[in-house]
Amino acid sequence: MKDIIKFSTIVLLGTSLLSSAFGEKMQVVNGKNIINPYYSRTDTKILKIPNSTWKKVLSSDLYSVARLGDTEAAFTGKYNEFDSKGTYYCAVCGNALFRSDAKFASTCGWPSFYEPIRPKSVIYKKDESFSMVRTEVRCGRCDAHLGHVFDDGPKPTKKRFCMNSIALEFEPLKISQN
Ligand SMILES: [Zn+2]
């Protein structure tokens, strides 16, 4: 009898989001680990950075959604069916965007929230692409495209902030240990 040993090779190409000890974010861009110097969870200063610069510090998938307005395919995002407690930050700049308490089970295929963490966390822009009139939601700090907001959400706001998972970064609630 011959023993057949199967080796499954798991190739980790490096997760696209690696947080450093200094709160900067490292991403794999063109196969290299690049530090995003604009990323901060404490600095709320508005960023005005051209796309040519963002292209050098963001992974191509994040760049396409956040800076070019692409939409990730429905039901594919990592936070679509996800209900852990914590806070969602902008994956581009670290700005706090949503609390998990405001997330609700939506059938639309993208993570959905009924309100942002603070009114100025996000900004709104009229979007008339694809022969539709929609309200685009952007990050209030770095102007990244996050998704759209619709009027068919649950109480108390009746809003549905329909977001691209890739533009969000989730930080679980820390349980204090004494
Ligand atoms: Zn941002």
UniProtKB/TrEMBL annotation:
Q: Extract the signal peptide range.
A: none
Transmembrane segments in this chain: where?
none
Look up the record and name the cofactor or cofactors this protein needs.
Zn(2+)
Q: Where is the MsrB domain?
A: 51-173
Instruction: Give the Enzyme Commission number.
Output: 1.8.4.12
Biological process (GO), any one: response to oxidative stress
- One term under GO cellular component: cytoplasm
Which catalytic reaction applies to this protein? L-methionyl-[protein] + [thioredoxin]-disulfide + H2O = L-methionyl-(R)-S-oxide-[protein] + [thioredoxin]-dithiol
**Annotated GO MF terms:** metal ion binding; peptide-methionine (R)-S-oxide reductase activity
Q: Which domain of life is it from?
A: Bacteria
Family matches, as InterPro entries: Met_Sox_Rdtase_MsrB (IPR028427), Met_Sox_Rdtase_MsrB_dom (IPR002579), Mss4-like_sf (IPR011057)
> Which EC class is the enzyme in?
oxidoreductase
Q: Which UniProt keywords apply?
A: Metal-binding, Oxidoreductase, Zinc
What family does this chain come from, according to its entry?
Belongs to the MsrB Met sulfoxide reductase family.
Protein name, as recorded? peptide-methionine (R)-S-oxide reductase
Record the organism: Kaistella jeonii
